[in-house]
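Margin note from the TA: students keep mixing up input and output lines. Inputs are the sequences; the output is the structure of the whole complex. Example:
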Amino acid sequence: MTATIEPEVGKSRLRKEDERLITGRTRWTDNIVLPGMLHLAVLRSPMAHAKIVSLDVSAAKDSPGVVAVYTAKDLDPDGSIGMPCAWPITPDMKAPRRPVLADGQVNFAGEGIAVVVARSAAEAHDALEAIDVEYDELPVVLDMEAALAEGAPLVHEDLGTNKNAFWVFDSGEAGTGGSVEDAISSSEIVVKRRFRQQRLVPAFMEPRACVVDPTGAQLTMWSATQIPHILRVMTALTLGIPEHKLRVIAPDVGGGFGGKIGVLPEEMMTVLIAQKLGKPVKWNESRSETMVTAHHGRDQIQDITISANADGTVTGLKVELLADMGAYNGLVGPGVPILGAFMFNAIYKFPAYHFACTNVFTTTTITDAYRGAGRPEATFGVERIMDELADELGMDPMELREKNWIKHEEFPFTTVAGLTYDSGNYEAATAKAKELFDYDGLRREQAQRRESNDPVQLGIGISTFTEMCGLAPSRVLGSLDYGAGGWEYASMRMLPTGKVEVTSGASAHGQGHETAWSQIVADQLGVPFEDVEILHGDTQSSHKGMDTYGSRSLVVGGVAVIKAAEKVIAKAKPIAAHMLECAEDDLEFAGGKFTVKGTDSSTTLQDVALAVFAAHDLPDGIEPSLDSDATFDPENFSFPHGTHLCAAEVDTETGSIKLRSYVCVDDVGVAVNPLIVEGQVHGGLAQGIAQALFEEAVHDESGTLTTGTFADYLLPSAADLPSFTTARTETPSTTNPLGAKGVGEAGTIASTPAVVNAVIDAVRHFGVNDIEMPLTPMRVWHAVQHGTTDAGGAGSEAGGGLGSIDTSGGAQ
Amino acid sequence: MRITVTVDGTKYTDEVEPRTLLVHYLRERVGKVGTVVGCDTSNCGACTVHLDGHSVKSCSVLAVQADGSEVTTVEGLARDGQLHPVQKAFRDNHALQCGFCTPGMIMASIDLLADNPDPDEKAVREGLEGNLCRCTGYQNIVRAVRDAAHHMSPGAGPEAEQIKHVGVGGE
Ligand code: FES
Ligand code: FES
């Protein structure tokens, strides 16, 4: 007997998932051990660009424990297999085949060349040493601008270019706003800057792994993936395996952050080898391997021009991007900058907007989605340029934002990029953040420190942001040439004892879906939280779905769960009416009970479930089932927003930075589980701050990744980060019945510009208007000594208007 | 080489290759897959276990070095179905998301608390420097460790918290 009185949604429930995770009773892919299982090790190219002149694997075949060694020719004799790209952003986008193993030529350091199968992983790795490869080195292509220059060496000779695609949006042409060129030539002030989004490594803690068992009726694949459902479809299409003969399982997955949305050559080779040998096979990568072969994120050069009137009203924004794809297209890689195209105008009412991006091939690891995918890059660009504009105008940066942002009463608001923001209240979030932060007090302290020439200067960084979440509207994704829809699926099975099994197509890798979904179901059906089991991550139980990325799980997948619950109740109602001998219209459902209106005659959903199981006395023509399924495809995205404020202390003598305080107020709409929301924000902040201060994937001039281990790639530890003050405002989304907006990426998106703006603000009076990320002590110190370090040299052709200013070449 | 190791209270005698790392011995031979591998440079701490009562990164210890020792893994912490106070604190404070770093974090935290029964925030942050987490931003981990401090019996560290069951072959 049930009746949950207190709503579950909104409660800070401890997570169901944790029991197994804190006791070590987990199922990581690498934990899977099958009888007779063999192990793979991949030989990877030390060269970034080379012809393979000869490849001799005969000695490796004789190594102890080795069962087989394969090269491209063995696995794919007719060279027909290519890794899929699901986002051909333009009809003429270049799509070079990415083979399972390098086929005659390697195009980035780390590309697989041969694969050894052995009885143990150690033996497989030992045997790699015995493989003999002769390379004929080709010139590397590492710099995007150089790659586009006339006569540049080509990554893929046969394409005749290193340009992957060119994509453009213009508000004048789209009819969503005016012409940027007109705005720039007629405005009182024009500021142009170049910003870099350095290359990052997603660095999920669990390296990727894949186990394939070909011995059953179906081929079963376990993978440390974010996308079991998409992986199943793509594997079927790529390898020609009948889809119904393939089962994909994403067991416990140790983080993803977008880094596990690929369809991997290693997954394909594991399948091919398991099929060839008829035995279970495991591939498990090392950290050094994952650093060079798992896709990287960001890596853009942004040339941004903003025009405004002297009073601070922005008149136009022009964005020209170069985006590094690496050596091949990732699954959604080419589309990542385009997600940003819709976010460069951010929370503002810019009247004119132009966005153009050129995707470029280089001889580096591919790039693809990384936490926020396109939106962090865009938010960084606009929040940095707003600070620069404020400085040129001599205006308080907060005042400039307030002047241009969309007011609460103006929602829903269609932006110059053509998106309609459903709801938002930037004023409320900002007011709360300022109060928690003591904005005015810190500004006073900043002034004092400047006046007294304190060696430690204080800076305040602002980032007011929004993003598009709930990557769905299938129709919108279709209009952007994305290869699939964005709907999500859920099913609900009422068990005879009144317990509930729910399947979701969104499979978690740390986000706590099992807990949040249980809360939703408990409210919808009026059953106890504990009576709900969430099944996910296995294409056999949750047979369809679009998986987890882009903060879509809750606002699309969670709503599918609600839709499925509504159907369960609708199915139960005539049966309950029959049991209570009343008309359906006389019944109301609340707290898990059907009650005859105005009486105390009632029956519970559990009782109905048992009656359905017995099926002795059901109304005529009624199917004995309460099970349901539902697919939700929202009409629009959701738009979380927030105000992030950072106070940074910068030691002008050493260049070191201390984050003194970090306050953020996020509006994620209705929070199903505030505890999970808070945790997601913390983790997101850490990742965004890490981009600002610590992390960068660096290649040397030969194309070798010099930051290829955790010893060189600076992932922050607990000692490197401060505690954060987080709070929320709640403006429900109107695009889904849950009112939720999504939270997974917010912290990462907002924090990078907040931190960089704070540091620049601290040292601006030394003539600094930009410092390249990550803001290492060396770079900060150098900037303080020499003024801005932005030597990017964006030209000054942007001007035209009165008082046109271009300081990108370096202020003194 | 032949080694005898007591893992989570059970004694194991096995033939191992001299180069076998403790973490691989635990995972592949003893089946203690709760301890995981996150890197190959001893930087991430995901593989942290207790060796004779002190936390070690089990990827930087050879199995043969553990000969004659007692090893406690995350799987050996709960007693009689009761979570270890640090495990409970991690759960209560939402100090984990994907949970991959969690076993190592818990093991490192227990040792930290043994050294310093009531650490302040700074001490926790510095004490856990060798353990990386990509999901939580550490704030709730710090909170959990400080919370656990108030729920540990006085002086309770790895040793006091260790299971002293009789292993195979007796002790
Ligand atoms: S696996 Fe041992 S420290 Fe990373
Ligand atoms: S909880 Fe995912 S790495 Fe720490």
